[in-house]
Write a structure and sequence with these properties.
By secondary structure, the protein is α/β, with parallel strands linked by helices. It is built from 33 helices and 25 strands. Helix 20 packs across helix 22 and helix 26 crosses helix 27. The longest helix has 23 residues. Bound molecules: adenosine-5'-diphosphate and magnesium ion (MG).
């Protein structure tokens, strides 16, 4: 170990010399100058002193003041100066993949290095990290995953948890774990960083830890609300013709509701009604109960946004525009629409950029660069640009007022949340983004009266999402009883949602009756997907039908590759229907579409294929790469047959694949009753439900299966099921749920509950005969 120490020391000195060289080079000097101009620099000594004397520190400061890029670097630099550059290990967590990647690249550049030297990153299934990496930016999920195998974080000297004000589920969870770890690791340092000023909350959670605020400066920003914008831009209202039935009905309902409401508050309603029209019918719905207008969750009023952008580009002074959208899909569709616009799509006038997780880093860099003179930069982004990414030359902000959190993290059990109104704090934060370099302007695309109804702060994620993955993680980290553990959170979730999650994990067989992790549960906790999708993968491996199952799981955890452009909805839906044939399965349709695309790719015609079939090539590519990762993960965990060819022996057996889908998606199940002219679908919890119109099972005259299993249901005005697959009675009986739960009897009893509820006689018969057969079999 003395030899080891000497080697480390020598290495540390080398690192120190190399940094000095860089800092004395012309580029290095320039960079250093920039870094010294950031507000955080003034606090450098105070920060480092407090860290050396306290185990926990809470840091707050305006977005852009240098928390994320500077503070971890200060620590690294002070370690290097103290000749510990080869032995320290600093981990800085980010709530999102893209910020982990973007920030690490930036910090490496500030240090005159390539990524993977002293600075690296690691996100799910991807990373850039070398032998000498001492400062690692990773997602919170990655650190939790590491805790799975390294409970004491051996060798780690500093943990920095960034953006804690967002109160993401993973971050709240990590804080409980770290709070327990600190007494066991007295030398470990924990730094919490937050943009807004609720530092006291975190400080008191850690027994009154010291806090340091970095004062920042921003220019004033003028706020416009919808009523001002309509007036300023003279937006022409779109007539309500050319609307499909669904839309027409919705408009009709909205108008009726608006009339009722009008009697009470005519003034607000006229604004709201204008808003409904202004944003075109796609953009707005109306909720009278809360007496406010709201965006239609399906889509934003693109025409209106386009109109506002045109106004700014052609009438307002120069300066970048940052548009806050709800999610990736919206960003892409809007970008396509804008690119086709004569002014906004003209590259000599407008540099149009999208900012999202899966974009290539070359495009990522453009976001931070100044465009050429006379070219206006427009960046379409999600709420991640609120705090984790700072674009300096933004002067105008366009805020749609909604946010949808989509996450690919394993621990986040919500693949798709409905867009909902942001909080006042978020709106303020978005507005602030316009005042980085000079006074700015913010266009809030909703009426002032709607803003007034926003909550002050967003509810912590732990209190508004299903907790299944989290509970599984608590068990696999051996953190004790789930309820007790979660009661120690900053703001503990409701008992009921914890119980729901535990019950769900028991139903799918991840936990036994005593809440102990089963073998299946342990395997599920290793896979970076939701438990139900993990179960599908494992069964796909066990039953040797891996290829199609991997495609389905990848599709469900990335996003739907089937596009439904609004103006070509029918064409798109019939294109999708071709992939289903008589299979009555959206999941199998996805498999066919993916396989067709692979074939087309081999013949160099992937793009034509996508174009013709309304498929997103980008999504298919993402699915493709995720599949590869699944394969390696399964191979590593030796779930795949040694003889690799075997794992697809049954891939062409559609019935088997259907059964595996059922096993994964249960208890997401609804009964099918074919009536003369229509089909009635029912779930146990919701009663009647509907299918999204792009499902292959929607609008068919008959579904020849008594059951549909589905991945996801969304409540809008009715409950809608997204993708579904038809299954037979016997498949449901054998694959639905967990046969080992309470023995065969227990399993059948539970299914019996479904059977009684739906009062389905054919299932009853199958059930009885199957029970008899199985009992006989067991007796033998
Ligand atoms: P905070 O975490 O406090 O919000 P950051 O450390 O992310 O602030 O950013 C500090 C400053 O560094 C920003 O104001 C911006 O000027 C600059 N910066 C950050 N990332 C980049 C980048 N990728 N390219 C250029 N400048 C950047
Ligand atoms: Mg930051």
């Amino acid at each position: 170990s003395a030899v080891m120490d000497r080697v480390l020391h020598r290495r540390s000195l080398q690192i120190r010399n190399k940094q000095q060289e860089w800092q004395e080079s012309p580029e290095g000097l320039k960079m250093l100058e920039f870094r010294k101009s950031l507000p955080a620099y003034k606090e450098r000594d105070a920060l480092l002193n407090t860290i050396s004397q306290n185990q926990v520190l809470v840091v707050s400061g305006e977005t852009g003041c240098g928390k994320t890029t500077q503070l971890p670097q200060y620590i690294l630099e002070s370690e290097i100066e103290a000749a510990r550059g080869a032995s320290c290990s600093i981990i800085c967590t980010q709530p999102r993949r893209i910020s982990a990647m973007a920030v690490s690249e930036r910090v490496a550049a500030e240090r005159g290095e390539n990524l993977g030297e002293s600075v690296g990153y690691k996100v799910r299934l991807e990373g850039m990290k070398g032998r000498d990496t001492r400062l690692l930016f990773c997602t919170t999920g990655i650190l939790l995953r590491r805790l799975l195998v390294d409970r004491d974080l051996k060798g780690v000297t500093h943990v920095i948890v960034d953006e804690i004000h967002e109160r993401g589920m993973n971050e709240d969870f990590l804080l409980i774990v770290l709070k327990d770890l600190l007494p066991r690791r007295p030398d470990l340092r924990l730094i919490l960083m937050s943009a807004t000023l609720n530092a006291e909350l975190f400080s008191s959670y850690f027994g009154g830890a010291p806090t340091i605020h970095i004062p920042g400066f921003t220019y004033p920003v003028r706020a416009y609300f919808l009523e001002n914008i309509l007036e300023m831009t003279g937006y022409r209202l779109t007539p309500f013709n050319q609307i499909d039935d669904y839309g027409q009905e919705k408009i009709w309902k909205m108008q009726k509701q608006a009339q009722t409401f009008k009697k009470r508050k005519s003034q607000i309603v006229s604004v709201v009604e204008d808003a409904v029209e202004a944003a075109d019918y796609r953009g707005y719905g109306l909720r009278t109960r809360e007496s406010l207008a709201c965006w239609n969750p399906d889509s934003i009023g693109f025409n209106f946004i386009q109109h506002v952008l045109c106004h700014i580009v052609s009438k307002e002074r120069p300066g970048g525009i940052l548009v806050f959208m709800t999610g990736w899909d919206d960003i892409n569709s809007l970008k396509d629409q804008l690119l086709a616009h004569p002014l906004l799509g003209d590259p000599s006038k407008v540099l149009l950029l999208a900012c999202h997780g899966s974009m290539p880093s070359s495009e990522q860099r453009l976001i931070f660069e100044k465009p050429e003179d006379g070219v206006r930069k427009i960046v379409l982004a999600t709420n991640m640009a609120e705090t984790s990414i700072t674009i300096n030359d933004v002067v105008f902000v366009v805020d749609c007022g909604k946010a949808k959190e989509t996450s690919y993290d394993a621990l986040n059990n919500t693949p798709c949340l409905l867009p909902s109104w942001i909080s006042k704090a978020s709106a303020r934060q978005r507005r602030g983004r316009a005042g980085r370099v000079q006074p700015g302007e913010c266009y809030h695309l909703y009426p002032r009266c709607v803003y007034d109804t926003f909550a002050d702060y967003q509810l912590p994620e732990l209190l508004r999402t299903p907790l299944q993955s989290l509970c599984l993680q608590i068990k696999s980290l051996e953190l004790g009883g789930i309820t007790k553990f979660l009661s120690r959170a900053l703001q503990p979730p409701e008992l009921l949602s914890v119980q729901n999650a535990v019950e769900y994990l028991k139903i799918i067989g991840a936990l036994d009756e005593n809440e102990n992790l089963t073998v299946l549960g342990r395997n599920l906790s290793m896979l970076p997907v939701e438990p139900k999708l993990g179960k599908m993968l494992i069964l796909g491996a066990i039953f040797n039908c891996l290829d199609p199952v991997m495609t389905i799981v990848a599709g469900l955890s990335v996003r739907d590759p089937f596009l439904t452009p609004f103006d070509k909805k029918d064409l798109a839906e019939s294109a999708k229907a071709q992939f289903s044939g008589r299979e009555h399965s959206d999941h199998l349709a996805l498999v066919r579409a993916y396989e067709g695309w692979k074939e087309a790719e081999r013949q160099q015609s992937g793009y034509e294929y996508c174009w013709k079939n309304f498929l997103s090539a980008q999504t298919l590519k993402a699915i493709d790469s995720l599949r590869k990762q699944f394969f390696y993960l399964l191979k590593d965990s030796s779930l795949i047959d040694q003889n690799i060819e075997n794992c697809n022996t049954w891939s062409h057996d559609e019935h088997l694949v259907r059964s595996v889908i059922c096993a994964g998606l249960f208890p997401g199940i609804c009964s099918v009753v074919n009536k003369e002219k229509s089909i009635a679908l029912k779930t146990m919890e919701d009663g009647l439900v509907l299918l999204y119109s792009n499902s292959v099972n929607a609008g068919v005259p008959k579904i020849p299966y008594p059951w549909l299993v589905f991945n996801e249901k969304v409540k809008v005005n009715a409950v809608f099921l997204r993708d579904s697959t038809g299954v037979s009675d016997s498949v449901l009986l054998l694959f639905g749920g967990n046969i080992s739960r309470g023995g065969l009897d227990g399993h059948l009893k539970m299914l019996g509950g479904y059977l009684e509820f739906f009062m389905n006689p054919s299932l009853a018969n199958t059930y009885l005969s199957l029970k008899r057969e199985l009992e006989e079999l067991i007796q033998k």
